[in-house]
Amino acid sequence: MVTRRNVLKALAAGCATASAAPVIAATNKSSPVGLRSRVPAHACDCHSHIIGPYNRYPMVESRVYTPPMASVDELKAMHAKLRIERSVLVQPSFYGTDNSCLLDALKELGSTARGVAVIPANPTSGEIDRLRAAGIMGIRINQTGGSKDPKVLRGALEAAGRQAAEQGWCVQAFFPLKTIASLADVIEASPAPFLLDHFAGANATGVQQEGMDKVLGLVKSGKAYVKLSAMYHKSPPPDYPGMAELAAAFVKANPHRVLWATDWPHTNSEKVPGRKKDDISPFYPIDNTNLLAKFFEWVPDDATRKTILVENPAHLFRFA
């Protein structure tokens, strides 16, 4: 049986040999024959992060961990290996509502990138204008370190939905599956589309798990997109047992509401005895080529792959 303990044990074994830098050295260890040539033009990695330099982009004091740095050049190198041409950069929790690193990275990447920001409760019109001009196309709501109160969560999602709709953006939500299911009515009523992070928080225990029916309903109705990403949080590499069934269920529900992402550079917020929040927490040593290969295995139809890798992100994030 796949359990969180087994996943963490498998990843910890890899992390024990991984250093804080360079990022690329710990990735892309395998290269399936012909994989790169089968990636369609304008394919998009819909979730990655840029981190640092530390002295230019300070992290919030309330963060729970400190990751290594990960640069735009390293992201470009990783994407070049996979023939990925477009990126969606996501504001990580350790930067709070200061999106400076994200905005600078978007400027460096230009028209091939879009962003999802974390914004304060009452942003000024000037702040929103600056985000829009930089390429921001979504608002991220992250339960990590936030309130677990259902009323607070409902209020946050309702407010984000209104804010996003005014700009033509989406709301990107990072919650456990059961939490998403409990908020399904809010998502259904939202004037903005929702994007559910990392398999919508589902575990690698099949489609019968609690809350899955409601989340599949949101995807089927078109009210929510789901991101096939970060499966290493729920299932051990390299085969990620149990995740193929989930991927198939989401694609069957509505292939036009599925996205794919690497979640590069694979930050690790797990608590380790003796490690302080200011200590560097090494990245998970994930093989990005294998992540893409698993996606090709789970979605064998070329037309459906193109829908997920190219057409869906182009529509949601307004790539030309």
Q: Judging from the principal axes of the Cα atoms, what is the shape?
A: globular
Strand runs, count: 8
Beta-strand percentage?
Answer: 5-15%
> Helix amount, in percent?
25-40%
Number of domain units:
1
Mean pLDDT figure: 90
Largest sheet, if any?
8 strands, parallel
Query: What is the CA–CA distance across the termini?
Result: 44 Å
What ranges have pLDDT less than 50 throughout 5 or more consecutive residues?
A: 13-30
Query: Which H/E pattern describes the elements?
Result: HEHEHEHEHEHHEHEHEHH
CATH architecture: Alpha-Beta Barrel
> Helix segment count?
11
CATH homolog superfamily: Metal-dependent hydrolases
Category from helices, strands and their pairing: alpha/beta
- Rg calculated over all Cα atoms: 18 Å
* CATH fold topology: TIM Barrel
- Would you state the CATH class? Alpha Beta
Strand order of the largest sheet: 1-2-3-4-5-6-7-8
Entry keywords:
320 residues, TIM Barrel, alpha/beta, 12% strand, 38% helix
Write up this protein.
- This protein has 320 residues and is α/β, with parallel strands linked by helices.
- It has a single domain (40-317), classed as Alpha-Beta Barrel (TIM Barrel).
- It has helices at residues 4-15, 72-82, 100-109, 125-134, 150-167, 177-182, 184-189, 212-221, 243-253, 288-298, 302-317, and strands spanning 44-48, 86-90, 113-117, 136-142, 170-174, 194-196, 224-228, 258-260.
- It has an eight-stranded parallel beta sheet, with helices on both faces.
- It is globular and about 45 Å long.
- Residues 13-30 have low confidence and may be disordered.
